[in-house]
Amino acid sequence: MLFNSLEFLIFFLIIYGLYLILSHRWQNRMLLLASYIFYGFWDYRFLSLIFISTLVDYFCGLGIESSQNITRCRRLLIISIVVNLSLLGVFKYFNFFASGLSLLLSNIGIGADLRSLNIILPVGISFYTFQTMSYTIDIYRGKLKPTRKFLDFALFVAFFPQLVAGPIERARRLLPQILQPRKLSLNSFYEGCFLIFWGLFEKIFISGNLALIVDPVFAEQYQGDGGRVLIALYAFAFQIFCDFDGYSNIARGLGKCMGFELMNNFNIPYIAADPKEFWQRWHISLSSWLRDYLYIPLGGNRGSRGRTNCNLMLTMLLGGLWHGAAWTFVAWGAYHGILLIIYRRLNIVTKKFLAIRIFLFFHIITLSWLLFRAESFAQVNEMFAAMLFNLRFAPDTILIFLRMLIIILPLLCVQVGQYVTKDRLFLFRRHWLIKTFIYAVFVYLMAVWGIFSAEEFIYFQF
């Protein structure tokens, strides 16, 4: 069930109507059932994976809290981590590692034919496994008390607005909102409706139309000039942002309508002047998760320069692999790890030439999206060579570039306003006449040029 579908609209209207008349306890029970129905729309069989993760982490959390034996606590934590990573490993990475191992063995003269599993990737598995692991880790660290209310914990794991593509919420933040009665207000409802509307505009108009520019260039049979490749990379940089930010805004908006406050997953990432700032602005829930549960436990920057560099690289390699079971994603993670190491070595802290640094770093990030979007290293090589040796701009290519600028113009205007006012909801706080005019323009753009084919969000595949 997709946020940008008629089925979801009907689903949420029914859920919200029930939500308004139920008590807190039955709100939670109804939301849990609704979350399972929402997820079951993709494949009800994979509900068993969510239930396994929920069951294991619930009892491991209680066991860690009740035990005074550090060895037993550590074993329970290991069980939680192993079970969750095993779910990821089997359903997302088994074929990737099996094929890699087969290739390695054949290269050293050992014949091996490791069979692949004919399974599909359960949607959202990377998100909810990380979310539940953080629960048991925080209990083990003494930062969180476990809940004995199993159904409320199950809702924390499966809460449908952010179940499929985040943000990856921490139990310290979301679980208290589930356990305590929520306060509904008209202002939160209006804010939620605005976030839903803006998220749908990002998906339906901006991301949908940019996909029409990007997809033909990355089609396997496409053999084009470097100018088309470069414009496709520009378009994909904004497509993936609007697609993922659109989902996050809709999730936050749905939560606000029901009295929940989900974390902001993006904060104008393309104004970053260096890789550290970029990861403080892009996919914040994942980057902060990797920092708190991987980079810092590895030692962070507390050791030598070489050790710090190793920690950065390992964190980004695993961050790249988190996005997909392909070597191109690993290379994408390595690319960002190298950027973090280089910028850390240069130690650029001056605010001079900030605009130039932002401009240059935007292009460095845009180039990285080639690794992220390409289907293979062969395609990466072909497209990079085309930009390097065949960079020309035919009249039709220039027209495509102008079309791209027109598509992203509303986004640029909104983000400039957000940056200047330092307010993500600055548009929502404008005078009602200004808002009415802008909403009317956005509705017109979606109605006339929007892509309403209910395409999946890009991050569903991760």
Q: Which whole number gives the mean pLDDT?
A: 88
> Which range best describes the helical content: under 10%, 10-25%, 25-40%, 40-55%, 55-70% or over 70%?
over 70%
Ends apart, CA distance between termini: 16 Å
**Amount of beta strand:** under 5%
Walkthrough of the structure:
The protein is mainly alpha-helical and 462 residues long. It has two domains: 6-182, no CATH class; 187-274 and 348-461, no CATH class. It has helices spanning 6-21, 24-43, 47-66, 70-107, 125-140, 150-158, 160-163, 171-179, 186-218, 226-257, 275-281, 284-298, 305-323, 327-346, 354-373, 377-389, 395-421, 432-449. Helix 4 packs antiparallel against helix 5. The chain is globular. The mean pLDDT is 88.
Structural topology:
Blueprint: H1 6-21, H2 24-43, H3 47-66, H4 70-107, H5 125-140, H6 150-158, H7 160-163, H8 171-179, H9 186-218, H10 226-257, H11 275-281, H12 284-298, H13 305-323, H14 327-346, H15 354-373, H16 377-389, H17 395-421, H18 432-449
